[in-house]
Amino acid sequence: MTRGELEWVGTDRDRAMGAWLARTFFGFGVAYAVVVVAGFVSLGNVRDPLPDPYLAIAEILILAMGPIMVMLMVVLHRCAPPRAKAYTLAALGWMLAAAATTMAVHFVELTVARNISHAAVPGYDRIFGFQWPSVVYGIDIVAWDIFFGLALLFAVPAFTRKSDKRVRAGFMASGALCLIGLVGPAVNVIAWRSIGIFGYAVVFPLTCLALSSAFRSRAMPTAPPTCAEASG
């Protein structure tokens, strides 16, 4: 395997965009965590569904995060070493699926679900209620625990430097935790899904700080001026 097959490609603009997207996702992740914690504190427990306005704000944040998730994986695919391109292309596909699915769920929750009378739809809570078991909640679990988790695991081969070990570890840990979180709905003990939530809501946003550094560290060095440029 040649050195060229292990080196990142892409442009300085790609890397700068990747660093910015990673930091932006971290910022949204912090905001999301603050809103969710504040909502459950207002309830006094973590068993009941998150109430409005906290739920609505969290859903708006997810709608904003979706395009960032996709663009981050687009840039990573552009910059990935040639030997990792097949894996990062698969990662991009899974991330597209994750973003599209969760954005559809939360748009429906923000608009349709809030404008339908519970009495008018038999089994409303089993369809639109954002608590287990319900259809929309199950679909959102697929988005985050399966699609998002697979996207992160497929992206791991892009990080080949020794200095990337924190990014590799973060991607692997977050992706694995997302998939392990499927145990909760599988055995109908939804509290165990907190494993997956910890993976994508805590571990991955923190990993984005290391990811931003990885993009910045690969910026092309500026060439020194030539004698003609210096004298001119």
Please explain how this structure is put together:
- This protein has 232 residues and is mainly alpha-helical.
- The chain has one domain (10-115, 122-217).
- Helices cover 68% and strands 0% of the residues.
- It contains 9 helices and no strands.
- The chain has helices at residues 12-43, 54-79, 85-110, 124-127, 135-155, 165-180, 183-186, 194-217, 227-231.
- Helix 1 packs antiparallel against helix 2, helix 2 (54-79) packs antiparallel against helix 3 and helix 5 (135-155) runs antiparallel to helix 6 (165-180).
- The model is unreliable at 221-232 (pLDDT under 50).
Shape type: elongated
Structural category = mainly alpha
Fraction in helix? 55-70%
Gap between N and C termini:
44 Å
Largest sheet: none
Sheet-strand content, in percent, reads: under 5%
Secondary structure tally, helices: 9
As for the number of domains, it is 1
Give the ordered list of helices and strands.
HHHHHHHHH
As a whole number of angstroms, the C-alpha radius of gyration is 20 Å
Poorly predicted runs of 5 or more residues: 221-232
Oligomer: single chain
**Count of DSSP E strands?**
0
Query: Average pLDDT across residues?
Result: 89
Provide a short characterization of the protein structure.
By secondary structure, the chain is an all-alpha fold. The protein is built from nine helices and no strands. 68% of the residues lie in helices and 0% in strands.
Topology:
Blueprint: H1 12-43, H2 54-79, H3 85-110, H4 124-127, H5 135-155, H6 165-180, H7 183-186, H8 194-217, H9 227-231
